Amino acid sequence: MSFFHAHFTELRSLFDDDSLVALSEEAGLKDARNVLNSDRYAAEVVEDHREANALGAGGVPFVVIDNRYSIEGAQSVEVFADALATNRN
Q1: Cα separation of 51 and 45, whole Å?
Q2: Strand partners, 65
Q3: How far is CA 44 from the centre of its chain?
Q4: Rounded distance between C-alpha atoms, residue 12 and residue 23, angstroms
Q5: Domain ranges of the chain
Q6: Phi, psi torsion values for 58, nearest 5 degrees
Q7: Do residues 36 and 44 make contact, with C-beta atoms less than 8 angstroms apart?
């Protein structure tokens, strides 16, 4: 089960540690509570945040293709097809 499905279909919370741990364990991730209670991935999160800001991310969804093209917000299949076609050149 994905977090997306759990949140939007089953109306499960993603905003507290117990819910995140339960969903993570259902997905086969056994170390979620330890990760949430540590700084194990703090540097990576800070770097991801910095990179998102540099790319102009202002919300979700935000898709980046080849670190050159970004698509912000809910877009049509045609927008993605055009971006992928442009990226091939």
Answers
A1: 10
A2: 69
A3: 13
A4: 9
A5: 3-36, 42-88
A6: -120, -5
A7: no
Structural contact between residues 23 and 3, judged by C-beta atoms closer than 8 angstroms: yes
**Using an 8 Å Cβ cutoff, are 72 and 57 in contact?**
yes
Summary mean pLDDT of the chain: 91
Q: What is the pTM (predicted TM-score) of this model?
A: 0.65
Predicted confidence (pLDDT) per residue in 8-42, tens digit: 999 999 999 999 999 999 999 999 999 999 999 99
Structure tokens at 33: 């509570």
C-alpha 22 chain-centroid distance? 18
Other CB atoms within a 10 A radius of the CB of residue 38 amount to 10
**What are residue 85's phi and psi, to 5 degrees?**
-65, -40
